[in-house]
């Protein structure tokens, strides 16, 4: 389409985008943000460590402040981390990011989760700790998993969802049944214990798609697939 609209235009290569254009754009935006933060007197941060699907570890620091009467928020940096995330190491990593953006002496508070290393990091940085409400609420919500009445029937639903997601034929048959029954062609959802609302979402989607799931389970093609796995 690009060639049709403008035959003379040559789009940048992947190498050019990765090594030149995007880094240059980032440097410009970073400079603009640093300039904006010069007028900020007080700020707070949100810091969180997380792990990718490939088991790589990262630390993200987000800055919150007010400017011209409006609350502003900017992600300062997401850094890959390679050391054990002790409180001392996390404090050093956060401090380096704040120094890089010139706001170390302007940050007075930090919102973090309830992990012990974050408690240590906040104390070493001499910041006021504001506990993450979402994380605390998540811990409370996870108590539902300790209920036998809930865990037993949730396990049955989960086993069906896992099998439907794992089997290619099950996905094909499920879509066919969804079309025949005029149901939304939604994928089944699997709960994740650390996401407090995911159990509700899994069950909600299961009941939404139950007629299609039931019809798919009775389809001869899936029965053959089940027998092979046995």
UniProtKB/TrEMBL annotation:
Its main location: nucleus. This is Uncharacterized protein. The keyword Cytoplasm does not apply. GO terms for molecular function: zinc ion binding. Signal peptide: none annotated. Coiled coil: none annotated. The keyword Ligase does not apply. It comes from Synaphobranchus kaupii (Kaup's arrowtooth eel). It is found in: Nucleus. GO terms for cellular component: nucleus. Keywords: Metal-binding, Nucleus, Zinc, Zinc-finger. It comes from the Eukaryota.
């Amino acid at each position: 389409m690009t060639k049709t609209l403008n035959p003379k235009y040559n789009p940048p290569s992947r190498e050019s985008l990765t090594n030149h254009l995007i880094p240059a754009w980032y440097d410009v935006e970073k400079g603009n943000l640093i300039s904006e933060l010069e007028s900020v007197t007080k700020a707070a941060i949100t810091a969180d460590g997380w792990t990718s699907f490939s088991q790589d570890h990262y630390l993200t620091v987000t800055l919150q402040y007010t400017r011209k009467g409006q609350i502003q928020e900017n992600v300062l940096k997401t850094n890959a981390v390679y050391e054990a995330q002790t409180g001392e190491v996390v404090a050093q990593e956060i401090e380096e990011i704040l120094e890089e953006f010139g706001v170390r002496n302007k940050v007075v508070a930090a919102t973090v989760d309830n992990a012990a290393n974050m408690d240590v990091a906040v104390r070493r940085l001499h910041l006021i700790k504001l506990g993450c409400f979402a994380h605390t609420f998540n811990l409370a919500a996870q108590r539902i998993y300790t209920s036998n009445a809930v865990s037993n029937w949730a396990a049955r639903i989960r086993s069906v969802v896992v099998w439907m997601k794992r089997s290619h034929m099950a996905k094909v048959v499920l879509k066919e049944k969804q079309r025949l029954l005029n149901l939304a062609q939604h994928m089944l959802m699997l709960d994740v214990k650390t996401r407090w609302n995911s159990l509700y979402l899994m069950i909600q989607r299961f009941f939404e798609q139950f007629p299609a799931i039931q019809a798919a389970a009775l389809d001869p093609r899936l029965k053959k697939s089940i027998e092979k796995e046995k």
